[in-house]
């Protein structure tokens, strides 16, 4: 009894190991079926010492059973499966270009508004550099580059690339709002600073999230 | 059976074997050991008897068979597999398709010998 239990146990352990990547319910199903199969044979031939050996032989090697379990896992039919992912440099370039084309004027506008509210005068001569319409239009080549690289790298960040593309328009809109309305009063100035800081934090968060995505296909 | 035949058989079995199992269950439910025996031990339909169980699990997952437990006279309780309505439909479809397919293959093989 002990010997037969251990032989069956070994077989089932091996099989369980080979089925490790299967859905647990299905794996249990297969293991239970095989165990029942062997128990059935042993019950039919209780006095035959070769019954167990015979049963395991007829079951076939556990690899064969595992192969059958995997047989219906057809290769993925997704069009991008099998094609190599684009080089990670595309993603790095996309992130760098996105950040350099959005952060300067959003940060700049926030600083301008904050300096007006706080009456810090030394920053104000720098206003034209960061928060004017001219500054925003000056960075458009960087933004176009960012869009191209983001689209090229979309498979490297499948969950984040659309968000990344959205950061541009969002940053532009919030900087424009800050410039147009932020100057009207202290309250509006404060609101625009908070809005801009939120947008900057959001942009950084999206960039980090995109960078961290490591899809395998 | 010759040595090279097993690779071809593996391909041919795919899709056909599960329907053979459905055919065996048409009429009355059966349990694993019985199904394995009825599929034959000549290695044509079933290589190892163990390969039947992933197949049965798949059929169950696809809703083509249902299972119930029943006591057996000779030993431990057994799991019985029975066709569902979906299984019956799949079997009927296979029977239609298989006959056409088999006849087409036979005709092609025969044609070339004449």
Secondary-structure map:
The complex is a heterodimer of chains A (217) and B (114).
Chain A: H1 2-18, H2 24-44, H3 51-59, H4 62-70, H5 88-117, H6 127-131, H7 133-138, H8 140-152, H9 161-181, H10 186-212
Chain B: H1 5-13, H2 16-25, E1 30-31, H3 32-38, H4 52-61, E2 65-70, E3 78-83, H5 85-113
Antiparallel strand pairs in B: 1-3, 2-3
How big a fraction of the residues of chain A is strand?
under 5%
Uncertain residue ranges of chain B: none
Q: Quote the average pLDDT of chain A.
A: 84
Q: How many E strands of chain B?
A: 3
Judging from the principal axes of the Cα atoms, what is the shape of chain A? rod-shaped
Give the CA-CA distance, first to last residue of chain B: 25 Å
Low-confidence stretches of chain A: 76-80
- Shape designation of chain B: globular
What is the gyration radius of chain B calculated from CA atoms?
Answer: 16 Å
Give Rg of chain A in angstroms: 32 Å
- Taken as a percent bin, the fraction of beta residues of chain B is 5-15%
Order of helices and strands of chain B: HHEHHEEH
How does the helix and strand content of chain A classify structurally? mainly alpha
């Amino acid at each position: 009894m002990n010997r037969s239990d251990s032989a069956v146990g070994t077989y089932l352990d091996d099989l369980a190991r080979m089925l490790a990547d299967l859905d647990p319910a299905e794996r249990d199903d297969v293991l239970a079926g095989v165990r029942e199969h062997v128990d059935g044979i042993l019950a039919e031939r209780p006095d035959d010492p070769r019954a167990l050996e015979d049963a395991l032989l007829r079951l076939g090697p556990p690899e064969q059973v595992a192969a059958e379990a995997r047989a219906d896992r057809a290769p993925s039919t997704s069009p991008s499966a099998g094609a190599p992912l684009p080089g990670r440099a595309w993603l790095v370039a996309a992130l760098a270009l996105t950040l350099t084309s959005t952060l300067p004027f959003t940060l700049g506008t926030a600083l301008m508004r904050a300096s007006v509210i706080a009456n810090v005068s030394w920053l104000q001569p720098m206003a034209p550099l960061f928060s004017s319409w001219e500054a925003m239009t000056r960075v458009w080549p960087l933004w176009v580059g960012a869009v191209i690289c983001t689209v090229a790298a979309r498979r490297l960040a499948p969950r984040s690339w659309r968000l990344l593309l959205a950061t541009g328009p969002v940053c532009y809109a919030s900087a424009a709002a800050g410039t147009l309305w932020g100057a009207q009063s202290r309250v509006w100035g404060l609101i625009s600073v908070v809005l801009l800081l939120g947008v900057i934090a959001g942009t950084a968060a999206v960039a980090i999230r995109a960078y961290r995505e490591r899809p395998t296909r | 059976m010759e040595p090279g035949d097993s690779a071809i058989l593996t391909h041919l079995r795919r899709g056909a074997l599960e329907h053979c199992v459905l055919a065996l269950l048409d009429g009355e439910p059966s349990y694993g050991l019985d199904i394995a025996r009825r599929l034959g031990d000549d290695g044509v339909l079933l290589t190892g008897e163990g390969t039947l169980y992933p197949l049965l699990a798949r059929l169950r997952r696809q809703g083509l068979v249902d299972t119930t437990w029943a006591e057996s006279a000779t030993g431990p309780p057994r799991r019985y597999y029975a066709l569902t309505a979906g299984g019956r439909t799949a079997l009927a479809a296979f029977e239609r398709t298989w006959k056409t397919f088999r006849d087409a293959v036979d005709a092609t093989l025969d044609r070339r010998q004449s």
